[in-house]
Amino acid sequence: MWARLLKLAIPWWVYVVAFGAIVTVGTGLYLGHVSALKKSAYAAGVAADKSRSDAVINKLERDALAARLVAETKVQAIEDGWRTIAIGAQRDRDKALSQNRKISAALTAAATERDQLRNEGAARTATVTGGVAASDDSVAACRDRAERTFVSLEAALRTSRECAGDAEDSDEGIRSLLGSWPKLTR
């Protein structure tokens, strides 16, 4: 076979070039096949890594969602506790205001009774003096001074009672505010 090729009188360098071309094409085919194998192995590795990372991400998302639900449940329970405390404090405040109204009504009734007694006392005093002018009768003058002193004392007591009633009303408001204020426990 070689002999026949030599007879054709083809220069030797053509054989070298042909042999080089065959080697080059063969090497290219081999490297292309190896490259394709590497690409498929790389793609398989990337797919495996992606599936593992997706599994980890999904697990983390599920854990985060579960933790969020637990935290929301705890927050809801705390808010419900605060609402219960606020409702209880409001109920206590309403009871205290009702008691203050009863006390105020009792004080008003006592003041009315006192005024009636004073008026009756003044009417008896007028009949006791027998119509003598207060300036002529020293007992009547003492009664007038006592009456004026009593009126001043009565005004002072009325003012004191009003202040005490206002203080009780304010006190219950402050107690209910403090009672309904959220308390942090650690």
Question: What does this 3D model show about the protein?
Answer:
By secondary structure, the chain is mainly α. It has one domain (2-180). The chain is 90% helix and 0% strand. Helix 2 (12-129) packs antiparallel against helix 3 (138-180). The model has no long low-confidence stretch (mean pLDDT 79).
- The portion of residues assigned to helices is over 70%
Number of strands: 0
Detail the poorly predicted runs: none
Binned strand content: under 5%
Mean pLDDT over all positions: 79
State the separation between the terminal residues, measured CA to CA.
99 Å
Determine the number of helices (DSSP H or I, runs of at least 4 residues): 3
Biggest pleated sheet: none
Number of domains: 1
Give me the Rg, rounded. Answer: 55 Å
Structural class: mainly alpha
Please state the overall shape, judged from the principal axes of the Cα atoms: rod-shaped
SSE arrangement, N to C = HHH
Name the features.
186 residues; mainly alpha; 3 helices; 90% helix
Short account of what is shown:
The protein is mainly α. It has helices at 2-7, 12-129, 138-180.
Question: How do the helices and strands line up, and which of them pair or pack?
Answer:
Layout: H1 2-7, H2 12-129, H3 138-180
Helix pairs in contact: 2-3
